[in-house]
């Protein structure tokens, strides 16, 4: 998979204006979004992995195999973000989700140790209300015992029966295939008639 950083911006109007599909990633800060982008693209440092949460405050766009874009949306729910900043991020996220016609799939990443937080649930409601196809990636699954993992996946499946739930770990190798398949399906999805 070839991948290339395209742009980092807070301004939707500065994103490339073309018909290439977008696959977006969203989740609370520190959930492992940057690590996941690096794992998927098999690059060690395409997205910056930070030990301190709240760093990714821009929309970061990557071109994959020159066929589609991977959009890294700003992480939400970071406690130290000011109220003012929070509103700016929320507006940016909202506009991106509502207005990007090329958006084919959203990968919502949640932390296996926390389960879906209030912020995650808010995002899920938003994705449903915008009728955006999405999958939930349960990241850091390596932190759970097998029984805990099974119980979390079962309750997520009951709660969101029509949503694909993908357990994942960035520290365990060979776990990217299911996500790549979901992305492939997303990319080739027939666009909504507008
Ligand atoms: P982001 O803020 O969502 O981009 O998160 P990062 O990718 O920067 O990761 C935040 C922290 O979580 C880093 O210390 C990562 O090494 C760690 N991390 C990311 N994914 C995993 C995972 O699957 N398992 C474990 N145990 N740690 C992870």
Describe this structure in words.
The protein is an alpha/beta fold and 194 residues long. It has one domain (3-187): P-loop containing nucleotide triphosphate hydrolases (Rossmann fold, 3-Layer(aba) Sandwich). The chain contains five helices and seven strands. The protein has helices spanning 33-41, 83-99, 118-129, 146-159, 177-187; strands at residues 3-9, 22-27, 59-64, 68-72, 103-111, 134-139, 164-167. The chain has a seven-stranded mixed β-sheet with strand order 1-3-4-2-5-6-7, with helices on both faces. It is globular. The model has no long low-confidence stretch (mean pLDDT 89).
SSE map:
Blueprint: E1 3-9, E2 22-27, H1 33-41, E3 59-64, E4 68-72, H2 83-99, E5 103-111, H3 118-129, E6 134-139, H4 146-159, E7 164-167, H5 177-187
Parallel strand pairs: 2-4, 2-5, 5-6, 6-7
Antiparallel strand pairs: 1-3, 3-4
Guanosine-5'-diphosphate (GDP) is lined by residues 29-35, 49-51, 53, 56, 75, 139-140, 142-143, 169-171.
Features:
194 residues; alpha/beta; Rossmann fold; 5 helices; 7 strands; binds guanosine-5'-diphosphate
């Amino acid at each position: 998979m070839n991948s290339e950083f395209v742009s980092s911006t807070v301004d939707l109007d500065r994103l490339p204006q073309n018909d290439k599909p977008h696959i977006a990633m969203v989740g609370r800060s520190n959930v492992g979004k940057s690590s996941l982008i690096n794992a998927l693209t098999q690059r060690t440092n395409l997205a910056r992995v930070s030990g301190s949460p709240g760093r990714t405050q821009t929309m970061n766009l990557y071109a994959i195999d020159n066929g589609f874009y991977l959009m890294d949306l700003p992480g939400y729910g970071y406690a130290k973000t000011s109220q003012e900043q929070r509103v700016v991020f929320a507006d940016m996220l909202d506009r991106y989700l509502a207005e990007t016609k090329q958006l084919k799939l959203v990968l919502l990443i949640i932390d296996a140790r926390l389960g879906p937080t209030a912020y995650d649930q808010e995002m899920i409601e938003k994705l449903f209300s915008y009728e955006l196809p999405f999958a939930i990636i349960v990241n850091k699954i390596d932190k759970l015992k097998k029984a805990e993992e099974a119980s979390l996946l079962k309750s997520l499946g009951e709660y969101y029966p029509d949503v694909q739930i993908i357990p994942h770990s960035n520290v365990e190798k060979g776990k990217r295939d299911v996500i790549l398949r979901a992305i492939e399906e997303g990319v080739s999805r027939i666009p909504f008639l507008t």
